[in-house]
Amino acid sequence: MKADLLIKSRAVFSGATDTPFPGYVAVRGNRIGAVGKGEGGAEDLIDGKTKVIDAGDRLVMPGFHDSHVHLLMAGLYRRYVNLIAARSEAEAARMTAEAAEKDPCKDGFVIGFGWYHVFWDEKRLPRKENLDRYFKDRPVLLVNAEAHGVWVNSKALALAGITRDTKDPFGGKIERDEHGEATGFLYEGASGLVTRHAFAFSPEREAEILRAFMEGAAAYGITSVNDVMPYFHGNMGSVAAYGALDARGGLSVRIHAAPNLLGDLDEVLAWQKKYNSDKLRVDMVKQFLDGVSTTHTALVLEDYTDAPGNRGSALFRLESIEKAVPEAHRRALSVKLHSCGDASLRLALDFYEKAYKLHGNTGARHAIEHCEMVSERDMPRFGALGVIPSVQPEHLALTQRFAENPYFVTLGKERADKTWPFKSLLASAGVLAIGSDCPVVDSNPFLEIYRAVTRLHNDGEPAGGWNPTQKLTLAEILKCYTWGSAYGVRRENEIGTLAPGYFADIAILSGNPFTENVSALQEGKVDFTVMDGEVIYARG
After folding, report:
1. Exposed (0-12), middle (13-18) or buried (19+): which is 489, by Cβ within 10 Å?
2. What distance in Å separates the CA atoms of residue 222 and residue 64, rounded to the nearest whole number?
3. Are 489 and 367 a contacting pair, CB within 8 Å?
4. Which CATH class is domain 5-63+500-538?
5. Where in the chain is CATH 3.10.310.70?
6. Which among 152, 259, 393, 522 is least surrounded, fewest beta carbons within 10 Å?
7. What are the two backbone dihedrals, phi and then psi, of residue 464, each rounded to the nearest 5 degrees?
8. CA geometry: angle at 143 spanning 141 and 144, to 5°?
9. Is pTM beyond 0.90 here?
10. 7 contacts: CB under 8 Å, gap ≥ 6
């Protein structure tokens, strides 16, 4: 049978080996029909109807699978202002106002992303007054760079009914002034008091936001994602909206949805049965154990260096999560638990171990998201329990300059130099799932690849990389970003590798990182993206 699409290259990285080889990939329908080495046999698969792409020296590889995306927020990230470049509260407010002025939508919430007081010249939390100067009648919600806090104006506070008498929700805090009035910054779980209003979208609006994400994903060679849906107010996004788009043939990325672990698990099973296509699956659930170490909300085994007596805080009631994990496991739902601290990571492993003891092996593949801090005692437990570390290497370079890295302040040098132990996690678990955590950072895979391989900040420091023994090789990060993430969703036999019978999800890069200088990784681009056998992106 002739190929519908034939891709030839002198550098095919199938994922089955550590080095690229000269050869071809033949596509029939939405599946890979053949993968060949050398030129022999390729011409026999071509007829007058075959589309041929000669990639030359460009790398041909499986499409990227982002294992950690907040899908709806990631779509909004592409639509609304990014404040990452702001160096002051006033500048961030002005940038927001300028973006809102250009936006054709003149009602509803003004939304923005990426600001962080840690990046500002004056490292203090923002207040509502600077936003009120520009927005008296429209509510504003600006998500910070970690997505664990929001900055809002007076209108948003009023809409959410937040007054001086409003109590802090569990796992959250309303920042207040000396008179007890809300200042406009909401920590962690308190963010949900406003996001429940700001992120309430119609199915039509969700479809529009999802299309914005998919357009960007195609340009990055991303063909699969894991949508970690829970946020502080509940699930972000609707599986039903995804399903409606899927039914219309509107998905250009495979979505593996992970709704709220603390929600109705029977409802999740109903979604699993109803939305079970090649492009949409609901086989996982997710929840937060803690926050992030930069704001002292990650659960740590020893006191924060700059905050004696503080070991972090749980974002949800741990006893509820401890009960829910075995219940999800019993239903063969894979669980993803957010953990940035070493204490929360130990809890996650304990909860998974308990689930296996109670119900045996149900086929679920549980994961710990982020894995920033891992004690030596707990590292071997990943392999022993079959738990998947799901990591986002770009988080390693939170600041532009290594000298400004806040981890040395909050954790001290000894602990900071042991963070993000990618190599050790891979050695223990035998697998890593790689993601971006978009919109915390952009979903650009080349940023993650560069950071995992070099462990450098954008200023090229520190020399040799931060904790260089934990660098991944290029082959390792590419395998983890494809096969590893596919393994995490129990689909390693149909996506994540270029092999006969697998879905034809393929990325053709603009160069070959195996032969280029490592510094070029950051600037990497994709020339073609094939998803389900169709070319969905071709760079002009």
Report:
1. buried
2. 4
3. no
4. mainly beta
5. 71-198
6. 522
7. 85, -10
8. 140
9. yes
10. 24, 25, 26, 27, 52, 53, 55, 60, 506, 508, 530
Reported as type and span, the H/E element at residue 92 is helix 89-102
DSSP β-ladder status, 234-235 and 182-188:
unpaired
Burial of 387 (0-12, 13-18, 19+ CB in 10 A): buried
- Write out pLDDT tens, residues 137-174: 999 999 998 888 999 999 999 999 999 999 999 989 99
User: Is the CB of residue 285 less than 8 Å from the CB of residue 260?
Assistant: yes
Pick the CATH number of 71-198 from 3.10.310.70, 3.40.50.150, 2.40.30.30, 3.40.190.10: 3.10.310.70
Residue that has been written with the tokens 């801090």 in this structure: 373
Assess contact for 63 and 506: CB atoms under 8 A. Answer: yes
Helices (H), 160-305: 192-198, 203-219, 239-247, 265-274
What is the model's pLDDT at position 534?
A: 98
Mapping DSSP to helix (H, G, I), strand (E, B) and coil, where does residue 474 land? helix
Sign of the four-CA dihedral 514, 516, 519, 523: negative
H/E element, 408: helix 407-410
User: Element (H or E) spanning 358, and its range?
Assistant: helix 342-359
Q: CA angle at residue 427 from 424 to 432, to 5 degrees? A: 85
Residues of the chain with CATH 2.30.40.10: 5-63+500-538
> At 63, which amino acid appears?
G
Strand-strand pairing, 234-235 and 230-231: antiparallel
